């Protein structure tokens, strides 16, 4: 049941993200007077629709995207244009004709192509910006919830210094440094060697490299700060597996790891993450997603190669919506608290919205970035004409001429999507 709930959460989250993306296009378009004839979530056959005013709102069978149909996306052919021969010439002509046919008599001024460049940019970038806003809100939400994690409060003390072989140690002859220093369960380590230790990671980094010398430690005990001195020892400890058994090599010898040893174990508690770190986390998601988009063809090739060979999928590979659903199912099945799983789900949806933001900024039709680039090109031409003192400014950009690029992009995206879906079924990415 938890797995089903997890998948439903992601499906609903994806649907809401798409719906708000399209809303980001529709609201400014209506504000600027453009007639919006359809607002649809999904593709394929229509499952439900209702017309309100001049706009038909509906849900289609395959919730893998959505669209807002704005009237007059493409201007008619410039005067004197001759239709060429061939498939792509016919595609361009058909796109122009369909766009013109949508304009009602007397409503030519409500066509999208009549908008100024700034207004076109607001309309076309409204969708991706909505996804960016959702990524920030979702990131702040899972930061506020936080995660169950190790803290600097001492849960227990080791009685003695462990041996490299994993045999029992002697508390009388080799007491653990923490015991010798007077630490006690319940102490919260405030600083170590003069460094503030707000997290368990901070404490581990501070302990590293301090073996063999006296170190000042400040702990909070019963509301009071107590200064102590601890002398970590440099030990080789046996590596143990998840069941606590000593890991051995092919010759049967115990595997060991060297490091400074104090002899404390942390408590586990839910800790919220600082909201001030949200911008840095959003920036990290952006750069990571942008890098994945830049290397998208390579990532898809790697997914195909790993799918049809015995190579397991790498954790940093791209995935389809099926892969996202499988990850959600893995999250739902984790042996963790409900709040921990909710936080991970929110982080997953935040990453998904960041992907929608970055992906839609690709400057090629039919993506939003392609329309934005055309608007910028149109604005640049008009600005040059103003500088030159021309009385007649250039008309709208002939977007229809980019339709062959849009068709090629559509085929590439469709093929990549199908390939990734197959990969996510045959050889899914396992993050957990």
Automatic annotation (TrEMBL):
Question: Where does this one sit in the cell?
Answer: Membrane
One cellular component term (GO) for this entry is: membrane
Q: Where are the transmembrane segments?
A: 121-145, 342-362, 405-426
InterPro entries found in the cross-reference section: PDZ (IPR001478), PDZ_6 (IPR041489), PDZ_sf (IPR036034), Pept_M50_Zn (IPR004387), Peptidase_M50 (IPR008915)
Report the membrane topology from the UniProt record: Multi-pass membrane protein
State whether keyword Transmembrane applies. Answer: yes
Gene Ontology biological process terms, A to Z:
proteolysis
User: Which co-factors does it depend on?
Assistant: Zn(2+)
Q: Which family does it belong to?
A: Belongs to the peptidase M50B family.
**Protein's name in the database:** Peptidase M50
Which organism does this sequence originate in? Xylanimonas cellulosilytica (strain DSM 15894 / JCM 12276 / CECT 5975 / KCTC 9989 / LMG 20990 / NBRC 107835 / XIL07)
Organism classification: Bacteria, Bacillati, Actinomycetota, Actinomycetes, Micrococcales
């Amino acid at each position: 049941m938890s797995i089903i709930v997890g998948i439903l959460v992601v499906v609903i989250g994806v649907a809401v993200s798409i719906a708000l993306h399209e809303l980001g296009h529709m609201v400014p378009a209506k504000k600027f007077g453009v007639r919006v004839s359809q607002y649809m979530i999904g593709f394929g056959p229509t499952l439900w629709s209702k017309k309100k005013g001049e706009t038909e709102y509906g849900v289609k069978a395959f919730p893998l995207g959505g669209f807002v149909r704005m009237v007059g996306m493409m201007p008619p052919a410039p005067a004197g244009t001759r239709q060429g021969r061939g498939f792509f010439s016919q595609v361009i002509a058909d796109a122009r004709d369909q766009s013109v046919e949508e304009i009602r008599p007397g409503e030519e001024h409500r066509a999208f192509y009549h908008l100024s460049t700034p207004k076109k940019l607001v309309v076309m970038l409204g969708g991706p910006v909505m996804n960016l806003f959702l990524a920030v809100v979702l990131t702040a939400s899972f930061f506020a919830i936080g995660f169950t994690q190790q803290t600097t409060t001492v849960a227990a003390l080791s009685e003695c210094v462990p041996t490299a072989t994993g045999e029992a140690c002697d508390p009388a002859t080799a007491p653990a440094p923490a015991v010798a220093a007077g630490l006690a369960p319940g102490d919260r380590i405030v600083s170590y060697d003069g460094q503030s230790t707000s997290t368990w990671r901070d404490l581990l980094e501070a302990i590293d490299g301090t073996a063999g010398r006296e170190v000042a430690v400040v702990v909070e005990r019963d509301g009071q700060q107590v200064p102590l001195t601890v002398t970590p020892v440099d030990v080789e400890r046996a590596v143990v597996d998840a069941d606590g058994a000593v890991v051995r090599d092919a010759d049967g010898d115990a595997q060991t790891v060297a490091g400074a040893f104090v002899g404390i174990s942390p408590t586990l508690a839910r800790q919220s993450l600082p909201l001030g770190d949200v911008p840095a986390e959003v920036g990290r998601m952006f750069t990571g997603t942008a890098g994945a988009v830049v290397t998208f063809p390579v990532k898809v090739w790697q997914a195909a190669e790993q799918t049809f060979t015995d190579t397991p999928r790498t954790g940093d590979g791209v995935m389809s919506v099926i892969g996202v659903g499988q990850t959600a199912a893995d999250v739902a099945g984790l042996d963790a608290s409900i709040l921990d799983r909710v936080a991970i789900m929110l982080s997953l949806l935040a990453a998904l919205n960041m992907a929608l933001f970055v992906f839609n900024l690709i400057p090629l039709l039919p993506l939003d970035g392609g329309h934005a680039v055309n608007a910028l090109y149109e604005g640049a031409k008009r600005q040059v004409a103003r500088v030159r003192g021309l009385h007649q400014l250039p008309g709208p950009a002939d977007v229809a001429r980019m339709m062959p690029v849009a068709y090629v992009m559509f085929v590439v995206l469709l093929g990549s999507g199908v390939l990734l879906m197959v990969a996510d079924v045959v050889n899914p990415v396992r993050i957990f």
